[in-house]
Amino acid sequence: MRKSGNKVLKNSFSPDLVEAGCDEAGRGCLAGPVFAAAVILPRDFNHPLLNDSKQLTHRQRTLLRKVIESEALSWGVAMVDNQEIDRINILNAAIKAMHLAIRQLKQEPQLLLIDGNRFKEYNNIPHHCIVKGDSLFQSIAAASVLAKTHRDEYMLEQHQKYPVYQWDQNKGYPTQKHRDAIAVYGISPLHRLSFRLEDKQLSLSL
């Protein structure tokens, strides 16, 4: 275990099982995909900055991403796009993204540690749902960093196509400027139509 601020992040949940931490990013956004990551860390992994990605600066997350991708025993990142989110709902889309990320792991985990309180069994692998797990377990924190940084990178690329929404600043989250841009310019092909984008739903603007 190691301390992160006032909290202690645990290296593992079980004494001897191969564990993969899983987390998602972008669940509350108005636009873009939801991303998820799965990470298997060495049992002796340690980095003084590692924490829930929401508690880190952009620079810290970028640094940690390089460390995690280099030192993890295995990792995977996957996304489910906004059209699929509208079709199956955001909870199911986030779980599907986690499943896709787990599928990418080169080593099959024996236990899955899931951030949050909802999950659907994957490939008969036992799992534990842990509320605020990204601030309790290193593998989940690592997954949160990868999911967040990969999604932010994607949204920065999309900002070049749709600069009016200022995704370089809000990454698709429901800031006032984002909602104001939707009111003025309409909805992009990346917006989630099943979400409340403003007081009145707008027709798709292509």
From TrEMBL:
GO molecular function: manganese ion binding; RNA binding; RNA-DNA hybrid ribonuclease activity
Chain's role: Endonuclease that specifically degrades the RNA of RNA-DNA hybrids.
Binding site for a divalent metal cation: 23-24, 115
EC number assigned by the record: 3.1.26.4
Any Gene Ontology CC annotation: cytoplasm
Enzyme class: hydrolase
InterPro entries named among the record's database cross-references: RNase_HII, RNase_HII/HIII, RNase_HII/HIII_dom, RNaseH-like_sf, RNaseH_sf
Catalytic activity: Endonucleolytic cleavage to 5'-phosphomonoester
Species the sequence originates in: Xiashengella succiniciproducens
Domain RNase H type-2 per the UniProt entry, residue ranges: 17-206
Cofactor(s) this protein requires: Mn(2+); Mg(2+)
Gene name of the record: rnhB
Hydrolase keyword on record: yes
One BP term from GO: mismatch repair
Name of the protein: Ribonuclease HII
HAMAP family, alphabetized: RNase_HII_B (MF_00052_B)
Keywords for the protein's UniProt record, in alphabetical order: Cytoplasm, Endonuclease, Hydrolase, Manganese, Metal-binding, Nuclease
Family under the similarity heading: Belongs to the RNase HII family.
PROSITE patterns named in the record: RNASE_H_2
Protein localization: Cytoplasm
NCBIfam families: PRK00015.1-3
Cofactor: how bound: Manganese or magnesium. Binds 1 divalent metal ion per monomer in the absence of substrate. May bind a second metal ion after substrate binding.
